[in-house]
Write a structure and sequence with these properties.
The chain is mainly α. The chain is built from five helices and no strands.
Length: 127
């Protein structure tokens, strides 16, 4: 017979639950402790969603105002009618994005903001 007769198999190998029950660390915290030591920086998921809605709505409103201002400035100049129309159309798309963002559809609002700015940039290329 080979091997030591007094050796035993480690409890972690035979039974994973027994290893969890056999806690050898003296400073280990008990399992029934509440989450009182959770840091204050932990972000509430509702707070993140609220921040995303405000960001989408605010960005949409700012881009809408910028597009309308650019459309009015280009309308008073000597450009083709396509340029102020593109700015106004991009501003309308950004306004729709602001509405969607305020209702919680932030992903769609992001894509509409991108599309609105692209329409305004395309109108600027015709100038």
């Amino acid at each position: 017979m080979s091997g030591r007769a007094d050796s035993d198999t480690d409890p972690e190998i035979t039974d994973p639950d027994a290893a969890a029950a056999q806690d050898t660390e003296p400073d280990a915290a008990p399992d029934d402790v509440d989450d009182l030591d959770e840091p204050d920086d932990a972000e509430d998921p509702a707070e993140g969603a609220r921040r995303a809605r405000w960001t989408a709505a605010g960005t949409g409103a700012v881009l809408t105002l910028a597009g309308l201002a650019a459309a009015l400035l280009r309308l008073s100049g000597s450009t083709t009618a396509l340029v102020p129309t593109a700015y106004a159309g991009g501003a309308a798309v950004c306004a729709a994005a602001a509405v969607l963002g305020s209702r919680g559809r932030t992903r769609r609002a992001l894509w509409l903001l991108i599309a609105g700015v692209m329409v305004m940039a395309l109108g600027d290329q015709f100038d």
